[in-house]
Amino acid sequence: MNPNRSRRITEPAHNINRRIRAKEVRVVGEDIEQGIYPIEKALEMAIEMDLDLVEISPNAVPPVCKIVDYNKFVYEQKKKLKEIKANAKQTVIKEIRFGPNTSDHDFQFKLKHAVSFLENGEKVRAYVHFKGRAIVYKEQGEILLLKFAQALEDVGKVELLPKLEGKRMFLTVAPKSGKN
Predict the structure, then answer these.
(1) How far is CA 171 from CA 140, 146, 150, in A?
(2) Of the candidates 74, 165, 174, the residue with the CA atom closest to the CA atom of residue 127
(3) Do the beta carbons of residue 151 and residue 106 sit within 8 Å?
(4) Which residue in 6, 41, 93, 108 has the fewest CB atoms around it within 10 Å?
(5) To 10 degrees, the CA torsion angle through 99, 103, 107, 108?
(6) Which one-letter DSSP state was computed for residue 19?
(7) List of domains in the chain
(8) Which pLDDT score is estimated for 140?
């Protein structure tokens, strides 16, 4: 082994068996009479069943411990976390870029795309990018974004009104319905 690399020893995420410091614990688990036991009696019960005593709620009074196979317990915890993450909705933000002097045809074209994005349940972030001295036309950019928001009001709701950040003016529109 390379002496410069440190060995990573992982500590268990929960207190198990002899690491539990409470004098008495509430014991839960399968095929067990639930109740409050002295720590020694609880450990004895776990050893008899050839399982581990795992502290699942250390802040309770008395702490709650479960008699279970620790590796199986950790596996199920990870599985639950993964399932929760999979069910969490990812918000997608589509960006649409305008110039301060965007033509009407280009505006309609980009508006059509924004409508389809909102109907698919995605947020739309429209912005006007000012190049060079075009920043003097920031009122035009704001009018353009407000016109854009007004055209989208039947499919989306404005989350963030036009706001200038550096050389860009942003507007955020979210879908009205809770579609995915």
Answers:
(1) 14, 8, 12
(2) 165
(3) no
(4) 6
(5) -170
(6) G
(7) 17-85 (3.10.20.80), 93-175 (3.30.110.10)
(8) 84
Q: Which residues of 54-71 are buried (b: 16+ CB within 10 A; e: fewer)?
A: bbbeeeeeebbbbbbebe
Q: Which helix (H) or strand (E) holds 37?
A: strand 35-38
Paired tokens of 72:
């199986």
User: Residue 114 and residue 173: Cα distance in Å, rounded?
Assistant: 9
Confidence of residue 48 (pLDDT cuts 50, 70, 90): confident
User: 81-103: buried (b, 16+ CB within 10 Å) or exposed (e) per residue?
Assistant: eeeeeeeeeeeeebebebbbebe
Closest to 76 in 3D by CA, of 33, 20, 13: 13
pLDDT tens for 79-136 read 998 888 887 777 778 888 888 888 889 989 988 998 998 888 888 898 888 888 777 7
Of 78, 66, 64, 56, nearest to 24 by C-alpha is: 64
Phi, psi torsion values for 14, nearest 5 degrees: -120, 155
Tokens 């250390």 correspond to 58
Contacts of 54 (CB under 8 A, 6+ apart): 14, 15, 16, 65, 66, 67, 68, 70, 73
**What percent of the chain lies above the pLDDT cut of 90?**
2
What is the three-class DSSP state of 114? helix
